[in-house]
Amino acid sequence: MIETKPEIKCDKVFSVSENKYQKNEGGLRTHGYAKAGRPKKPLVSLITVVFNGENFLEKAIQSVFSQNYDNLEYLVIDGGSTDGTLGIIKKYDDKLDYWITEPDTGIYDAWNKGLHFATGEWVSFLGADDLIMPNAFSEMLSFAEQSTDQLDFICGRVEMYDGKTLLRTIGRPWDWNRFKRYMCVAHTGALHRRSYFQSYGLFDTSFRISGDYELLLRSGKALKAGFVNSVVARMQVGGQSNGNSAVFDEALRVRLLHGVTTPFWGRLHAKWSEIKWHLRRHLVGI
What we know:
Blueprint: E1 25-26, E2 44-50, H1 57-64, E3 72-78, H2 85-91, E4 98-101, H3 107-117, E5 122-125, E6 131-132, H4 136-146, E7 153-162, E8 165-170, H5 176-179, E9 191-193, H6 194-200, H7 211-217, E10 225-236, H8 246-257, H9 263-284
Parallel strand pairs: 2-3, 2-5, 3-4, 7-10
Antiparallel strand pairs: 1-4, 5-9, 6-10, 7-8, 7-9
Helix pairs in contact: 8-9
């Protein structure tokens, strides 16, 4: 079942009352400061979800504050961490636009929570152990401004690391014939126009791995997607979709849900994809 659509409108200057916030929240917004879109500078809301990420969260935060795009709203959604994560978040209380710490039911539940608090025209998601490149948003938004279409989604290339070792680079232009077979675009650091969520709803929390793929399949071949041929993010392997063969079962469920395959051909494709995944992990580690 799809979650209720967010109602917050973007690009509005608004004031906030500090006393409506709870002790498990913080950031500039809770102190009465809020951001809005500007001419030629649409507001970007970047959401990071974290749980017990004391060993890597700070690097992700620092990469965000190294962006050369200057109209950025950064939100951190913590799932109730029990290590030193909250201390790191509070260290940046005067720079983060909003943060909250409370239990959630998984990454898509947490992303939906972030969407509820986001106010930008564009929304992006960055893993707590990933890094966003300094020029990522300026490049993608420049592409959007020059496009003749009103794009729903813009992505780039993403480098995949195991520690400090670069394993491979993923990401290619969106193509419907390819996309209906598998998630061919890189989601980390990509931009989603907020109106897409208002039209198609939030992430389906019944998925644990392939909810981003399912979300983008809802619009079918009508998705207006753009691509920049440069690295926009670096991500560490080992996330749900990188180290879990269950991703093939979920991807099949997504494709059957949207009618882009049949049970027979879908299972055949899923099995072949899993075989290739195992071979790649054996040969290059991912």
